[in-house]
Amino acid sequence: MSLPPAPRSQRSQRVAIIEDDAPTSGQLRDWIAAARPDLQIDQWFDRDSAEAALQREQYALVVLDIELGRERHAGVALINSINKQGRGTPVLVVSAMPAAVYRSIMKALDAWDYLQKTSFSEADFVETFLDILRNSKAAPAQETSLSLDPLRQTLPSWRGQRINLPLTAQRILATLHERRGQVVSYDDLFLVIKSGRNRDNVRKHVSTIREALREVDPGFDGIENVPMRGFRWTLTA
Asked: Membrane-spanning residues where (predicted)?
């Protein structure tokens, strides 16, 4: 006689690794399995199979790379897909892209953390993975008013309405939003600007951001100028 299925709360949690490089995927799988042998681990190697699995399964945590095969920003599309589901599924991004630029961008997309390949150890990965897994249990899904995809020349949105911003302005906006409530210095903002790394240029980009947001939200006043230091996103979302 077969036993009835275990209650949902007693079933093993399932996590996903979305990584096109098989050795890297295998290493991440082994690290997770050694740290948490109770977890079920799914491995996906391309965007299509990963996207189908994300629709089908409810993962406790997703580890993914930004670049999958020839799709340079497939991971961004997958994060956006996860966010649209509204389940609050935490995402840990593991990528070769430079952390100085991409960490703030990924967090602005609601990824929980970012690790740059070749610059972290097994202990770093396991500690980050377990921290996210523990903290996500008590964290409700959050809706943010700002939607960004700053890795592409696509339009972000504010409170459901599209805003027109060039790529550099999107990166600055992503950095300000990710560190909301904190003063972001000019030096920090220089890191996301490829050319024209001076204060006047940063101020022009911030002015462009304000104008774009006010086109769809005339009362917007969420970016504070902190004299001689930088700027601060003052809203909670």
From this structure: none
Please tell me the total count of domains within the chain: 2
Domain interval for residue 184? 146-233
Q: Check whether residue 193 and residue 226 sit in a common domain.
A: yes
Strand partners, 200: none
Does 61 lie in the same domain as 107? yes
Q: Report strand pairing: 61-64 vs 91-95.
A: parallel
pLDDT digits (tens, 9 = 90+) for 148-181: 765 655 568 887 778 888 888 998 998 998 888 8
pTM of the predicted protein model = 0.58
Asked if residues 184 and 176 have their Cβ atoms less than 8 Å apart, the reply is: yes
Which range, 7-21, 75-89, 151-165, is most confident? 75-89
Asked if residue 155 and residue 128 are part of one domain, the reply reads no
DSSP 45-61: -SHHHHHHHHHH---SE
Long-range CB pairs of 193-202, under 8 A, 24+ apart, other chains included: 193/168, 194/168, 202/172, 202/231
